[in-house]
Amino acid sequence: MRRPLPFTFEDRTAALTNTDFDDIYDRMFFHVERQPGSSTTKIFEMHFPALRHRGKLPSNSNPLIQLDFASDEHLGTISFFKAPYQSALSMSQYLKKTSFFGSSLSRKFVASDGREYRWGYRLSPGQEWTCTTSDNQLVAHYDLRPPNMRYFDASGNNLVIYESYAHIAPELVASCLIMRHIALYNL
């Protein structure tokens, strides 16, 4: 019996504000953009990989998710624009610390499927960020290209989402971006 292949999204730039997440098996694609001078990051679902749309802005389409940060880059609101989870929440309400006195780099959220998921920083070797269920099932991980690895046609930065959780892929992309933002700005 074949095991399902996880969705392995190459993060084209590893930037928090302008990048593309393209599954290496061409099954799902996301574009992340922030206009210069803005504090709003938008996540779009695309129908083809970045190599075929690079330079074309998806401004005619509506984002799936919008991240509105404060002007000083503090956490703001996250807005969902696709059913069944159309709402806006404060990011600190959406991604809550796992414990009151715990690290800001360990947070949990409830996805649109009603289940709780947890992100943690450098919990496993080779994984910059790891997402698990509340009962420690591996959901996703974000891996940066090792500094000594040569760069060719692929960035080497990947968000791996296991097939059982593909239905919440946009939320995993958004929550991973927020977690990386929290780490970058030491929030």
How would you describe this protein?
Pfam families: DUF6593. This is DUF6593 domain-containing protein. InterPro entries: DUF6593 (IPR046528). It comes from Crepidotus variabilis. With 187 residues, the protein is mostly beta strands. It has one domain: Porin (Beta Barrel), CATH 2.40.160. It has three helices and 13 strands. It has a 13-stranded antiparallel sheet with strand order 7-6-5-4-3-2-1-13-12-11-10-9-8. The mean pLDDT is 89.
Tell me, briefly, the overall form.
globular
The strand count comes to: 13
Task: Describe the strand arrangement of the main beta sheet, using strand numbers.
Answer: 7-6-5-4-3-2-1-13-12-11-10-9-8
Q: Tell me the distance between the termini.
A: 45 Å
Poorly predicted sequence stretches spanning 5 or more consecutive residues:
none
Overall average residue pLDDT: 89
CATH architecture: Beta Barrel
Radius of gyration from CA coordinates: 16 Å
Number of helices: 3
Largest sheet: 13 strands, antiparallel
Helix content: 10-25%
H/E series, N to C? Answer: EEEEHEEEHEEEEEEH
- CATH overall fold name: Porin
CATH class: Mainly Beta
How many discrete domains? Answer: 1
Protein name: DUF6593 domain-containing protein
InterPro entries: DUF6593
Domain DUF6593: 16-181
Organism: Crepidotus variabilis
List the helices and strands and how they pair.
Layout: E1 7-11, E2 19-23, E3 29-33, E4 40-46, H1 50-53, E5 65-68, E6 77-80, E7 87-90, H2 91-94, E8 96-97, E9 106-110, E10 116-121, E11 129-133, E12 138-143, E13 158-161, H3 169-184
Antiparallel strand pairs: 1-2, 1-13, 2-3, 3-4, 4-5, 5-6, 6-7, 8-9, 9-10, 10-11, 11-12, 12-13
